[in-house]
Write a structure and sequence with these properties.
single chain, 277 residues, MetI-like fold, mainly alpha
């Protein structure tokens, strides 16, 4: 190996290490801080000096954080199921059914995601009030689905277009209806795409803050992002940094676990086994 090749490889690994450290260090420091209490919270520590679960117990046993955590789970799971159901059927129509204005409709769906949340906040608030959804979990499910659906539809439509037409033709010859083709033929081939889009939709719904703050007003309907933001004190020294860090770790762990569980599906070949000779 030449000196230049060795230098390039060394620089590459240094860059990888730098990216990993920059990405992981905030979460690591949150874990370290979540085990600290008292004056240790205001000291810079890169290694936990004591492993106490006081902050975690305070978060889980006082206040409404467990209820908020359950709300986030319900909302995020509902958004994933609803978005995938609508996106799969819409992607079949947009990729397989020929009709006038199909390309324009697809571009319109994609254009919805270009608007920032704050731009449509007032109008969406009026819609939610009109349907009497304010301060309910359905308000969050409705608003999150609106912003999740364009990306999900676009990705699944692009994927479904690449599936061999022979599979669909064979199903039609056997007398399969469109719904049967979607559920029995396409969906088994679409698992990697469904997992990827579903996971991204879950993360977006789990981490959303603006709509959750605006459309809910009681502890019974708030999600964890709002609950963490409301953990505050009168002065900086009275802010419960320990419980805040513990709550942040608890909220982040489900996302890490989901990515680790589904990482093989995410990176697997999307059309492997689609056509068998």
């Amino acid at each position: 190996m030449t000196a230049w090749a060795l230098t390039k490889r060394s620089l590459f690994y240094l860059a990888v290490i730098a990216v990993v450290v920059i990405s992981v260090f905030p979460f690591y420091y949150a874990i370290v801080t979540s085990f600290a209490t008292g004056t240790d919270l205001f000291k810079v520590q890169y290694w936990p000096h004591s492993l106490t679960l006081v902050n975690y117990l305070n978060v889980l046993t006082t206040g409404s954080f467990p209820r908020n955590l359950l709300n986030s789970i319900i909302v995020a799971a509902s958004v994933v199921l609803l978005a995938l159901l609508l996106a799969v059927t819409a992607s079949y129509a947009l990729s397989r059914v020929r009709f006038r204005g199909r390309s324009l409709l697809l571009l319109t769906i994609l254009a919805v995601s270009m608007f920032p949340q704050v731009a449509v906040l007032a109008g969406l608030f009026e819609v939610i009030r009109f349907f009497h959804l304010y301060n309910t979990l359905w308000a969050l499910v409705f608003s999150y689905t609106i912003f999740t659906l364009p990306f999900t539809v676009w990705v699944l439509t692009t994927f479904m277009r690449d599936l061999p037409i022979e599979i669909e033709e064979a199903a039609i010859v056997d007398g399969a209806k469109p719904w049967t083709i979607i559920t029995r033929v396409f969906m088994p081939l679409m698992w990697p795409a469904l997992v990827t889009t579903g996971l991204l939709a879950f993360i977006a719904a789990w981490n959303e803050f603006l709509f959750a703050l605006t459309f809910t007003s009681s502890n019974d309907t708030r999600t964890v992002t709002v609950a963490i933001a409301l953990l505050s004190g009168a002065t900086p020294h009275e802010i419960p940094w320990g419980p805040i860090m513990a709550a942040s770790v608890i909220v982040t762990l489900p996302l890490v676990v989901l990515v680790l569980i589904f990482q093989r599906k995410i990176i697997s070949g999307l059309t492997s086994g689609g056509v068998k000779g």
